[in-house]
UniProtKB/TrEMBL annotation:
It catalyses: a 2,3-saturated acyl-[ACP] + NAD(+) = a (2E)-enoyl-[ACP] + NADH + H(+). This is Enoyl-[acyl-carrier-protein] reductase [NADH]. NAD(+) binds at G16, D70, V71, V98, K168, I197, R198, T199, L200, A201. The active site is at Y151 (proton acceptor), Y161 (proton acceptor). The keyword Glycosyltransferase does not apply. The lineage of its organism: Bacteria, Bacillati, Bacillota, Bacilli, Bacillales. Keywords: Fatty acid biosynthesis, Fatty acid metabolism, Lipid biosynthesis, Lipid metabolism, NAD, Oxidoreductase. Its EC number is 1.3.1.9. Substrate binds at A101. Pathway: Lipid metabolism. One of its GO terms (biological process) is fatty acid biosynthetic process. The keyword Chloroplast does not apply.
Length: 260
């Protein structure tokens, strides 16, 4: 299977590990299983410390490159990808697992979203993918794959998801436009629409517990999904197995999105 995936030794940038629950950490664990070479970016010092601890526990063969990157800052993104290229050479894949909105914009009525809160959620959670793709592209000279994380709130009005739902709608649309631009360079880009998983980011969504219960009760698989399942699907998107797929949103949500 490893051979079919063609990910052995491939340099995959993983953005967004905050702790052991992060979807990005699920991706990293799956990448290690197929022999890839993850490179990590983090924003806060506390994530850097957490990441080092996790990597020690994972007992990886070699210590991976870890680079600071704040996706609200163009210079920071540019510097991060230059540093990654200088240290590891060609980049074969990028996992964008980053989002943020002010907590006051995830409470109460959507109609009260502030102008600045709207812009901030879009900047961090949707525009960041465009900026990341632009800075990564020059170093993805052998083609490759970019994966981002979305949620059903992009297309349905999920109570409590509010401004983040609109940001995810922009993110999913950006995936399609980016797929058009990146295709010529044989770079694919897709989104995974993940089911609800208890992480730090999920804590900001007030209705989260209700969402978890609803999925358990009504989804075709009658259960919630795991970080490992999202990690494995992400690796499938990064691998040779998905070489004919770009611009797509695929649901890893126990089938919840299909029900009427
Ligand atoms: N947990 C879920 O239920 C769920 C479901 C669907 C989609 N998602 C998406 O998955 C992605 C990862 O979230 P998660 O649930 O693993 O939570 P998480 O809190 O573990 O990860 C979010 C990451 O975003 C990073 N981040 C925020 N602002 C940043 C900035 N300016 N620069 C760089 N990094 C920044 C944080 O440091 C953190 O590592 C997000 O896009 C989220 O919307 C999560």
């Amino acid at each position: 299977m490893e051979d079919l995936m063609k990910l052995k030794g491939k340099n995959i940038v993983v953005m967004g590990v905050a702790n052991e629950r992060s979807l990005a950490w699920g991706v990293a664990k799956s990448l290690y299983k197929v022999g890839a070479n993850p490179i990590f970016t983090y924003r806060l010092d506390r994530s850097f410390a957490k990441l080092n601890k996790l990597l020690k526990e994972e007992q990886t063969a070699s210590s991976p490159l870890i680079v600071q990157c704040d996706v609200n800052d163009d210079e920071s993104i540019k510097n991060a990808f230059h540093e990654i290229h200088e240290k590891v050479g060609t980049i074969h894949g990028v996992v964008h697992s980053v989002a943020f909105a002010n907590s006051e914009d995830l409470k109460g009525d959507f109609i009260n979203t502030s102008r600045s809160g709207y812009a901030f959620a879009q900047d961090t959670s949707a525009y960041s993918l465009i900026a990341v793709a632009r800075e990564a592209k020059p170093f993805m000279t052998e083609g490759g794959s970019i994966v981002t994380m979305s949620y059903l709130g992009a297309e349905r009005a999920v109570p409590g998801y509010n401004v983040m739902g609109v940001a995810k709608a922009a993110l999913e649309s950006s995936v399609k436009y980016l797929a058009m631009d990146l295709g010529e360079a044989n770079i694919r880009i897709n989104a995974i629409s993940a089911g609800a998983i208890r992480t730090l980011a999920a804590k900001g969504v007030g209705s989260f517990n209700e969402i978890l219960h609803k999925i358990e009760e009504t989804s075709p698989l009658k259960r919630n999904v795991t970080q490992e399942e999202v990690g494995d699907m992400t690796v499938a998107f990064l691998s040779h197995l998905s070489r004919g797929v770009t611009g797509e949103v695929v649901y890893v949500d126990s089938g919840y999105n299909i029900i009427g």
